[in-house]
Amino acid sequence: MAPYASDDSTTAAGAGEPGIRRRRTARYVVPVVVTGVAAATIGLVPALADSGDPDLPDVTAQQLIERIAESDVQQMSGTVRISTDLGLPDVGGLAGGTASGSAGRGGGSSADPSAKLTELVSGTHTLRVAADGPHRQRLSLLEDAAEYSLIHDGRDVWGYDSKSNEVYHATVPETAGGRAKERSELPATPRDLTEEALRAVDDTTSVTVDGTAQVAGRDAYKLLIEPRQEGSTIGAISVAVDAGTGLPLKFTLTPASGGAAVVDAGFTRVSFAKPPASAFDFTPPEGAKVTEGGEADRLPPAPRAGRGTGGNPGGDLAEEFGGLKVIGEGWNAVAVLDAGGRGLPAASAGGGPGESGALGGFLGSFGDEVSGEFGSGTVFTTRLVNALITEDGKVYAGAVTKDALVKAADAGK
Fold it and tell me: Is residue 71, in this structure, part of any structural domain at all?
């Protein structure tokens, strides 16, 4: 979670101080760069807020993006409700089983956040969040008769699963000056999701102000982000931005196919008062199993709607996977992975039960067979991300339609 400011008056007063301006510039380089890209390439015209309730002064989309970038909320607490519907079954049990059965960084602890937070990829969840500056943050995932908490206090990072009474502990590395590194944002808040969306803003994007709203009792502007390209599975992203602080309060991603939102994350309660110090105190309960995870440079990222850096949503993906090839640009970027061997066998392949043809037929029943200049393969779809696995072992994946995947495969032939 990004560090947050104490209240509206503090934010407004501090905006004119050179030191605070420098700090904001350093901490929010990406959003500020996005603002410049937007102004230069999108040609954001004055898209004024409508006269609905609440009645707020008119702003342009560029001004609203700047407010998000300059938001410097240091202290806050609240409750976030997040719903994710990719059209997949709930994997919460699978994630938990992976955590308890693996020998990964957390040594198989169910309290390891790298596994626990994967539960957010499906279903509806309630989170309690709190922050008091860059070195004290807390996120609690509320479950039936149980709670999972992730606490950052100074150099210590604690994960606690009350259901299993297991504790995960890691430390934040120190900088050369002997101070603990600032933690990266705790995941899954509307701000985190908004910053990811803003990284994809380029000349393939339409950005407008779409009226006003009230979220968690706060007056807000609605920022609307839409792909201009055909072929994206993303229909629109709507962000409710707090009129006083510039903090995103609600993030909604709807698919181009229509229907319910794929991702809907918003505050149901928010306060900009300083949280009590006790919110960040943690001592392992008596009898709890404690697993030491060593040093942690950052918390593992939560599942997000997309990745990208200024003008190419596939940019980060390519970097993270060691130069993974990306075809296309903007919202139509498709990542290409060469498995270096045979891909999914076709259903028409010869052989009896249990052989490649039968396997191909079984797996193919979950997807759609396609063909083109690239050859043939199977497309597996969700409500947002689709993937094409070809017979020669290549995988094409992106937030694009089936036809766009076939075109990408033909282009990469």
Answer: yes
